[in-house]
Sequence to fold (402 residues):
Amino acid sequence: GIVVSSLLRDTGMVTVDPGFMNTASCESKITYIDGDEGILRYRGYPIEQLAEHSTFLEVAYLLIHGALPTPAELDAFEERVNRHTLVHEDFRTFMGTFPRHAHPMAVMSSAINALSTFYPESLDPFDPETVELATVLILAKTRTITSYVHRASKGEPLLYPDYSRGYVEDFLRMTFAVPYQQYEADPVVVSALDQLLILHADHEQNCSTSTVRIVGSSQANLYASVAAGINALSGPLHGGANEAVLKMLTEIQANGGDATDFMKRVKDKEPGVRLMGFGHRVYKNYDPRAAIVKKSADSVLEALGHNDELLDLARGLEEIALSDDYFISRKLYPNVDFYTGLIYKAMGFSEEMFTPLFALGRMPGWIAQWREMMTDPQTKIGRPRQIYTGATARDYVGPDAR
Ligand code: ACO
Fold:
């Protein structure tokens, strides 16, 4: 509910809205969600059509520039992103200084923030050419950084980009290839990963995107703003859920694979026990992204010959949930994170890489939202109010009198 207070005399009435359940922070033309109907559209285009026909860089262009590119525009955009994929040698050295066991999300946010120190010519938030340069640099180098965090966690060297390959194909090569050996990415994996990145590319004012906007509202540069978004995404209630889902499935399996017993613990609200990958603040119907991912999990795992018992377990948990009153009455359905981890695992990614892959996919959305805000005359610095509930005025007492 909303608590209304008239205590703040300077602004009149103030609403308390924990979790911003009822507060729109902005107007936006980028992404439309109808949570009751399970509808998601980027710039008006249904997610199902984009997932089937588009590519990640085309969707990035669409989100950022507002229209699907002509073939010439897309070529130029892809060429520009490709050309900037290499990182500065000093940046490589910097990346090598993180401990091996560091969580990739911590490395990733630090790395994106650090990029700003290498490209001081791309920091002005109000010059359109500079913003376009920062956009291309971030899209290009996030791919390199994401592949690097995977390799670094295994003690392997960073591979240089191959400009003749596409964005996703070369990302897979940079991530998985053995140095000096030929690597051809499996086309099934390339198109499945491309589709997953499209599905993650934007989701209006979620926790990380709101973070990007609030940091940017102080006129902080694009790198600082999206690095903050990565940190917001890392939590298990947000992007970190994909990693948490696989941990949950593995744990249930290790304890004998009893889905019914686990669901009882969820419904009994045992501390710390939630059905991860289920529920959403906005979707009160099947998450349309989850429907696409579920289909893809079936076909990708089959094509890769990856017979994963955890997929059966996940399906079993979903089946119980969809016919159980606890979940039905609360309108809890699988969200995008429920099946993604199983696909990433089959592709060869470790659990810790799942959320970085989400960040790689969400980057165009964060950039588009930041750019929209920066050019919106309505934008003001984000500065919520509070209702103070602490002590009333009192006098300081020295240590001896306490
Ligand atoms: N398992 C069990 N119960 C749940 C779950 C779940 N996954 N999600 C919500 N509930 C229950 C809550 O206990 C609460 O029950 P109550 O009314 O009896 O107290 C009710 O459903 C409402 O839940 P809230 O936490 O109030 O819903 P909110 O909108 O604040 O949270 C959230 C949404 C954070 C996504 C929540 O559903 C959750 O924690 N899910 C698991 C984590 C997850 O998958 N996160 C990924 C979200 S999608 C994304 O970020 C890409």
In short: The CA atoms of residues 11 and 162 lie 57 Å apart. Residues 19, 237-239, 241, 266, 274-281, 330, 332, 335-337 surround acetyl coenzyme *A (CB under 6 Å). The radius of gyration is 22 Å. The beta strands are 3-5, 14-16, 31-34, 39-42, 45-46.
